[in-house]
Predict the structure.
Amino acid sequence: MNLSASKLKGRHKTGRIYLILTVGIMSAVLLVVFFLYRQTQTTLTPPQPEFDPQKCVRLLDISRVYRISAHPNNPYVLWFATAEGVRVFDNETAEWTRLGLDHGLPDEVVSDITFSGETPWVGTWSGIGIFEGADTTFNPLVPDDPRHQGRVLAVESHGNDTVFFSVDGKGLFRAVGQDLVEPVTVPGASRDLRITCLKSLPEGLYIGVEDRKLFFVPTGGESPREIGFSSPSAE
């Protein structure tokens, strides 16, 4: 009787050892499978950039984008004019950079962006801002001149050192460098018309105005002219 109990006790002890070994082996197998799965996911999933809220943002945080412009010497760097400041996206590093009021931007609402050479000019609802890359700040364009201060609707570089821009209710202006700003008279377009878009070409400047008007200012000094829109042909 004692012998049978001893054998039974030995079997129970052996069974517990087998159970412990089985659980240990299964746990090790699960850990190996989980590790291999994580390695596979890391390999197949492209790396996601980390976003610092003080420096970088996702485009989904933006309520409205008005213009996207590529840097003239680096088409992989895109500048976004948005209702919440300027956002710069580097396609090579997948990083977003935020530029706002704390960088000297005249206003959070940025309606347009152009490049004069390599220098970004941005049109905001409180005037023109010129970006100084070395200091990562915006400087206002001739801040002491009230004639061109206001809501900028469009900005377009023309040639090496000339930038045209329109101000809501004040008309069209031309900036030569960063120190001289002068109004531009467009025959047939009253100053209270809203110039909503500008496009520079080597032969001149196209000016889009509300009320279905388009003007062209030739580069060679000829008189500006109005261009009529033809009706689309019916098929």
